Amino acid sequence: MDIAVFFPFLLLIGVMFFMTRSAKNRQRQALQMRESMQPGTGVRTIGGLYGLVKEVREDTILLEIEPGVHAVYAKNAVGAVLEDDEYERIVNGETLSKGDAPVVPDDASSLTSETSEAGVDLEKQADADAKADGERGSGSAS
User: Fold this and answer.
1) Which pLDDT does position 18 carry in this prediction?
2) What would the pLDDT profile of 70-91 be if each residue is shown by its tens digit?
3) Does pLDDT of 118 surpass 80?
4) What are the angstrom distances between the C-alpha of 24 and each of 10, 17, 29, 45?
């Protein structure tokens, strides 16, 4: 028999081996992550709920969702164990310094004023745009 006949089967077996190996590695990492949970750890469930671990049981955990509000979740429902600073940033909101905060106008009047913050005269710019559009459009056939 020729080895070329067995090559596709060997290739398929090799691919299956590497796929199962990577899946087992992901399962092992998820198990390690779930085992690292301790009371006081912030977590995110696979459904997107953030909570603070209050108690770790054999197959479940007790999460504090809000102060005084507790819920029991399966350990398998935990999608990520978060670092303390990341959990605080997500739950309590990120604080931006004054220079980092985006400038958002309270109303549309700043968008329609004669000059923008950059010092561009918006009315003159609109007139120039209209004139340029008219010059480009005058060459069309009627």
Assistant:
1) 83
2) 999 998 888 888 888 888 888 8
3) no
4) 21, 11, 9, 21
As a whole number of angstroms, the distance between CA 45 and CA 28 comes to 18
**To 10 degrees, the CA torsion angle through 118, 120, 122, 128?**
-140
d(CA 43, CA 52): 6
What distances in angstroms separate CA 94 from CA 51, 88, 133, one per listed residue? 17, 8, 45
The torsion angles phi and psi of 49, rounded to 5 degrees, stand at -85, 135
Residue 135 has pLDDT above 80, yes or no: no
Could you say which of 3.40.109, 2.30.30, 2.40.10, 2.60.420 is the CATH number of the domain covering 37-95? 2.30.30
- Which 8-state DSSP code applies to residue 28? H
| Burial of 42: CB neighbours in 10 Å, binned 0-12, 13-18, 19+ | buried
Name the average pLDDT for the chain: 77
